[in-house]
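Service request form, structural biology core

Requester: graduate student, group of Dr. S.
Request type: structure prediction, single chain
Budget code: on file
Notes: please return the result as structure tokens.

Sequence provided:
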Amino acid sequence: AQSYREWGALLRAGVPMVPSLDIVIQAQENTDAVRALASLRDRLREGGRVAESLAAVQPGLPAFERAVIEAGERTGSGPRRAHDDSLGVEREIEFRERWSDPRFSDP
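Core staff response, request fulfilled:
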């Protein structure tokens, strides 16, 4: 989600998609994240769609997240909404973690 926020902030500031990913990649310390983001960048550079490319490099991408990104692509808001969308995804993850706590399960 942190990478989404950074990417979304750069896009909203007017930095084009591929160069903004280059900036996010340079800021990453996690080598797995660097590989995934570089693969995403390369797919986008070759003309791939954001949702499809992201799903290809992140096989565990939740269907909800992919649907939000696809909707953004269809409506023209595209990845510029990545920051706002990432906040919603973070809230969903927090909700799931909170309710998957054993203290809240049936006896």
